[in-house]
């Protein structure tokens, strides 16, 4: 390939191991960008790879220079951060002048980052020629080139994947359809390979129909299954080396096509898909968008384009009580160790099911008007005796609405419940806190005011 230009890094004038001094970069104050989709307009944000380090999301991107470019003119990589998915700040740029690439290179193609042993590793493309690696003590740099030469050559578009096995084994994935995607295990030092990278076998119609040039793969793992994505399609395997079986498209619309370079990431128990698209056919200038992503009960990966259909400009991580409804699966955060999880909804789409007493869902930055006087929720398979407290600001914050599962009947309840809302107007975080006793469970399809 998986906010706005302001340099905040001042690369020290120290010689790197490749014998070249890092290029000096100006350092005006960091600029914060307003929320929504596209994440940041009119800056040529391309090839987004999101990584969570500590309590911050870092977005490593390419930089398309001009909307008028007929060919890719990419002269740097950029690093953006957020702690709420709403406000983005550019923390710096990474220059090809600081690695083995040409000083005047315009081939700074897709990149990715990883951390291990207290250091950060930036894997980058020199066009299709090679993949290199740079290191830093900070996720925002400055980065230096420890090798002074490619890590692998030829091919491009790296993903750094850390498995969840006992050793947290690191891998590098890269390449394109013409020469095959490849995967190879990295050494503990993260700057050398422990094995010869192996070609990845992919079966299925989507891969067979993909163009010869298809590149920018992304690899992640969920519930013991490896997911390998490209464009709008993906494949799965029970082995990191494959073979992978094609599963089809993650979604339709909103530029989810063969050019949708992007990545997936977890944040506070929610899953997201971020990708870029060309503004004008034939011109090499892109913008980046983000939405929620989900897994069906049988493990199918779904990018939530329904959210984009309704709330594209709003973006993730903030909500409006004036919406017709807020889907439960659009939560911003879920309690650690919660039994609640996204599930298939009986009528299609998703719900948050199996919530038990003490679980909670957080919806950050909800805007309320003066007309928000009643809270309504659509419950699914809710056990008698269960309920929901709507709290403001924290899981133990003030209770501003309460709904309970109607009594009577032996079967679980599915239907709407309502209660008076006393939260008033303003913008605040809302927590749905589940109440009850024993082994009771409740599912939520949607809610609103």
TrEMBL record:
Keyword Signal among record annotations: yes
SUPFAM superfamilies linked to this entry: Arabinanase/levansucrase/invertase (SSF75005), Galactose-binding domain-like (SSF49785)
CBM6 domain location: 324-449
Keyword terms, alphabetized: Carbohydrate metabolism, Glycosidase, Hydrolase, Polysaccharide degradation, Signal, Xylan degradation
InterPro entries assigned to the protein according to its UniProt record, in alphabetical order: CBM6, Cellulose-bd_IV, Galactose-bd-like_sf, Glyco_hydro_43, Glyco_hydro_beta-prop_sf, Glycosyl_Hydrlase_43_Enz
Signal peptide extent: 1-23
Entry's family note: Belongs to the glycosyl hydrolase 43 family.
PANTHER family documented for this protein: ENDO-1,4-BETA-XYLANASE (PTHR43772), PUTATIVE (AFU_ORTHOLOGUE AFUA_2G04480)-RELATED (PTHR43772:SF2)
Name under which the protein is recorded: CBM6 domain-containing protein
